[in-house]
Design brief:
Strand content: 5-15%
Oligomer: single chain
Largest sheet: 5 strands, parallel
Number of domains: 2
Radius of gyration: 18 Å
Number of strands: 9
Helix content: 40-55%
CATH architecture of the largest domain: 3-Layer(aba) Sandwich
Number of helices: 14
CATH class of the largest domain: Alpha Beta
Structural class: alpha/beta
CATH topology of the largest domain: Malonyl-Coenzyme A Acyl Carrier Protein, domain 2
Length: about 325
């Protein structure tokens, strides 16, 4: 029986910084190939935007999704080449594509191509139906979920991310999110508007499904060689058809991140590595599993951090 101890966690949108991936690009041929694939897939100079910005242009969804995916997978390739290998993987929203590549379900280049198609489809849907997202902090997750279901019609908005026991992200039209913020603030919650250009994981993303599906259909998906957790169910899957359906389904359904982390905990994972830019997932992990003495967590988005981790892995 395989012992599952280490999980790679891959971030999605919101973790980007200007300069991400530049050190890897200079030193690693695999990273350069991934950035070239991102440039080709996005039809834009993703590399220049990653390294030089401006931040606003990098953060455009159709550019950012292949950019984040290229950086995630460049980091993962470097880590594995230097002996840092996971037993399981999961990704938050867009990060799921990186997790698929990490577990052998798709080739790295196909993951980047899918990210570009996903970003364009979502950007187009957001342009057609503008919306936004808010984080509701300080109330129990079950309370927020129940209240949101009663307050909002699914066509106008609902739960997008289950990030922790006291942090739920809602997504929908601007009017619906204004209504939700007023409602939850009256209950004592803190409502934080997110810097996003669309209502991700809501019904407004329904038009993104068909164009994304068209790019996904010809791509072969293999059974994962490592434990893989899916956003839509919050649980593991080794069935290619379920994995394919989950990629499309997550466009307008909630990211069940809390369920994923709790599942990894139940699997026996005691070492989490956030592979890619930022420390967003590290923060969600602390919310879900407050006993920081029970596990190790590393955020590795540059060569300095990765070399430090690889050295400690060998020790």
């Amino acid at each position: 029986m395989t012992v599952i101890r280490t999980a790679f966690l891959f971030p999605g949108q919101g973790s980007q910084t200007v300069g991400m991936g530049a050190d890897l690009f200079r030193e690693d041929a695999a990273a350069r190939r991934l950035f070239e694939a991102a440039n080709d897939a996005a039809g834009a100079d993703v590399t220049a935007l990653c390294f030089k910005g401006p931040f606003e242009s990098l953060s455009r969804t159709r550019v950012l999704q292949p950019a984040i995916t290229a950086v995630n997978l460049a980091c993962r390739a470097w880590l594995e080449a230097h002996g840092v290998v996971p037993d399981a993987a999961a990704g938050h929203s867009l990060g799921e594509l990186s997790a698929l590549a990490c577990t052998g379900c798709v080739a790295d280049v196909d993951a980047v191509r899918l990210a570009a198609a996903r970003g364009k489809a979502m950007d187009d849907a957001a342009t057609a139906t503008p919306g936004t997202m808010i984080a509701v902090v300080g109330l129990e997750a079950a309370v927020v979920i129940a209240e949101a279901a009663a307050l909002l019609d699914r066509t106008e908005g609902g739960v997008a991310n289950l990030n922790g026991p006291d942090q739920i992200v809602l997504s929908g039209t601007t009017a619906a999110m204004d209504k939700a913020a007023a409602h939850f603030e009256s209950m004592g919650a803190r409502c934080v508007p997110l810097a996003v250009s669309g209502a991700w994981h809501s019904e407004t993303m329904a038009p993104a499904e068909a164009p994304f599906q068209a790019v996904l259909d010809p791509i072969e998906i293999a059974a994962p060689a490592r434990r893989l957790y899916l956003n839509v169910t919050g649980g593991p899957s080794d069935a290619p058809d379920a994995i394919r359906a989950g990629l499309v389904g997550q466009l307008r359904n909630p990211v069940r991140w809390m369920d994923i982390v709790q599942g990894l905990m139940a699997d026996g994972v005691t070492r989490f590595v956030e592979v890619g830019p930022g420390k967003v997932l590290r923060g969600t992990l602390r919310r879900i599993w407050p006993d920081a003495t029970a596990y190790e967590v590393y955020s590795v988005g540059d060569l300095v951090a990765m070399k430090r981790l690889a050295d400690s892995w060998k020790a």
